[in-house]
User: Which sequence fits this backbone?
């Protein structure tokens, strides 16, 4: 189900909790909401649709893939950039890494490990940052 985008900074600054299999519907809602906003959005965290769980979805070309309880285990190539967010107004400066490795669960809650670089790595880092309540 397509959900409304949360813009309440007080809510967005709250920490997210690990997701469980009881949160499978959140994954579907996130994927639907990202697809509905694909003209202006390339990634989304669960708190952006009002759920404080550690779930993100990422658009990589025509594919949208979820990551449940993702943890960045390695990062290299630090750089400065600017990003925007559907939940916030304007563009803000931030630090990202060119290459990352991530441990996560897929939508079937099976353990996965991925290596990402470039723009996809940047999207993943942005969305994982939502879990801490730290806004870009």
Assistant:
């Amino acid at each position: 189900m397509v959900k409304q985008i949360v813009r309440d900074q007080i809510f967005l600054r709250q920490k997210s909790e690990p997701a469980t299999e009881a949160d499978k519907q959140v994954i579907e809602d996130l994927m639907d909401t990202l697809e509905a906003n694909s003209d202006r959005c390339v990634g989304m965290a669960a708190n952006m649709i009002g759920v404080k769980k550690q779930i993100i979805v990422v658009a990589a070309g025509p594919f949208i893939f979820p990551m449940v309880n993702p943890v960045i285990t390695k990062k290299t190539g630090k750089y400065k950039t600017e990003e925007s967010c559907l939940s916030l107004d304007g563009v803000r400066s931030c630090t990202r890494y060119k290459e990352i490795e991530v441990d996560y669960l897929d939508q079937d809650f099976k353990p996965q490990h991925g290596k990402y670089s470039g723009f996809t790595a940047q999207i993943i880092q942005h969305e994982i940052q939502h879990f801490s309540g730290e806004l870009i």
